[in-house]
Amino acid sequence: MTGIELVTVGVAAIIAGAVSALAGGGTLITFPVLLAIGVPSVTANVTNTVALCSGYLGGALAELKDLSGEKRKLYAFGVTGALGGFAGGILLLNTGEATFRALVPYLILLAAGPLAIEGPVHRWHERRIGQSGLPHGNSVWRLIPIFLASVYGGYFGGGLSVIVLAVLGLEVQDSLTKLNALKQMISLCANVAAAILFLFSNKVIWSAAIVMAIGALLGGVIGGLAADRVRPSVLRGIVIAFAMAIAVAYFVQ
């Protein structure tokens, strides 16, 4: 990868890190940029997953304090997320380049969809928390939707956090703060499990992954500092518009 290309993906990662910290959806920036500079689609997705692990880790650690006393739930959901992410990673590595490239516009649109409804999903949870008679979800069957969401996370990952939050809202009766913290941990476990698998796939472009990981961390810090100055809904709308433009471009091709 050339110096100009590394600078390009590094800048994209900084922007993605800031966007993820403020509104979510950073994957929808870095993945298309990797494709635009000529990286094959499966390799781009694998590299993107490995590079953005640092962002998931930062988000999970920031909210870990909100899971005090939830060790059993955290263990069950974390293991389920890891198993799902690993399964999704295997599925990705066994998808042909031509097949995955054909799926790219659909995956981008699928990722943009949950991002578009993140606000309504949060409001729905807030209303639902105040209702009585909600299921506590003690059955092992509640883990199946989380596993399936994590499979998607290991396969592509865009919009994973919103998908997991929606699933948790249906499965667990808890405060929105705790659901957000659980969402971060499940997303981290799914992403890291897939990334560990990808380390042995010979599909990681390490120069890009390292630059992007540093950029995403820097962007996350910038996003945190700018949190009081930026409206997440506006930024989210820009990311969705960008994702839709990329998807349309692929359909036209």
Descriptive report:
It contains twelve helices and no strands. Helix 3 (41-51) crosses helix 11, helix 4 runs antiparallel to helix 10 (176-198) and helix 8 (143-155) crosses helix 10 (176-198). The longest helix is centred in the first third of the chain and has 23 residues, at 71-93. The protein is globular and about 50 Å long. It starts with a helix and ends with a helix. Residues 132-137 have low confidence and may be disordered. With 253 residues, the protein is an all-alpha fold. Helices cover 77% and strands 0% of the residues.
Secondary structure elements and their pairing?
Elements: H1 3-22, H2 27-36, H3 41-51, H4 53-63, H5 71-93, H6 97-116, H7 118-129, H8 143-155, H9 160-171, H10 176-198, H11 206-225, H12 232-252
Report a brief summary of the structure:
This protein is mainly alpha-helical and 253 residues long. The protein is 77% helix and 0% strand.
Q: Top keywords for this entry?
A:
253 residues, mainly alpha, 12 helices, globular
